[in-house]
Design a protein that fits this description.
This protein is α+β, with helices and mostly antiparallel strands and 87 residues long. Helix content is 25%, strand content 36%. It has a single domain, classed as Alpha-Beta Plaits. The protein has two helices and five strands; from the N terminus they run E-H-E-E-H-E-E. Strands 4-1-3-2-5 form a five-stranded mixed sheet.
C-alpha cells in the first residue's frame, strides 16, 4: 500500500503519530516527508490489516490535518524490516 497524504501534514508530528499507530498493526514500512509538503507512507502486510491501519490514521487526531490522500496498491518489495520514519 502506497499512500500520499496532503494537507497540513508536516510539522504537526504526523510521522511520529503514524509510527505509534503502526505498533498496533501487523505492518511494516516507512513514513517520510516529501519536499512538496506531502507525507508518503509505504506499507507491506495483509491487505485487510493495511486497510485497518489506514482507517486508524483517518480516525486519529491526524485526520483533521489530512486534506486528501492518494492510495495505490503495489506488489510488496520485501525491503522493509519493521516500521521506520525516514527523513
Amino acid at each position: 500500500m502506497h499512500v500520499y497524504y496532503a494537507g497540513r501534514v508536516q510539522g504537526v508530528g504526523f510521522r511520529y503519530r503514524v509510527k505509534t499507530l503502526a505498533a498496533g498493526f501487523e505492518a511494516i514500512g516507512v513514513v517520510r516527508n516529501l519536499s512538496d509538503g506531502r507525507v508518503e507512507l509505504i506499507l507491506e502486510g495483509m491487505r485487510e490489516e493495511l486497510e485497518e491501519f489506514q482507517k486508524a490514521i483517518q480516525k486519529s487526531e491526524l485526520g483533521s490535518f489530512i486534506r486528501s490522500e492518494q492510495v495505490r496498491w503495489e506488489d510488496a518489495t520485501c525491503e522493509f524490516n519493521g516500521f521506520q520514519i525516514a527523513s
